[in-house]
Amino acid sequence: MTSKVAEETLGYEQARDELIEVVRRLEAGGTTLEESLALWERGEELAKVCRRWLDGARARLDAALAEEEKAGTEGDAE
Asked: What is the pLDDT of residue 73?
């Protein structure tokens, strides 16, 4: 499979698209047990990559909203 470095350089959309393809292949069947296990493991890795991107996006959004709220309450105090 891919190395940890390659996983870390995957963008969200790339990881998501590859994950969709992995799921499609698993649902279609016709693969050996070994191939299915390898696909499953890759899917788990890709899901983690997506989760990290989404968690990071959530943290950035929360920080921006908190900053906006802080600026709004400081403006009210004047």
From this structure: 81
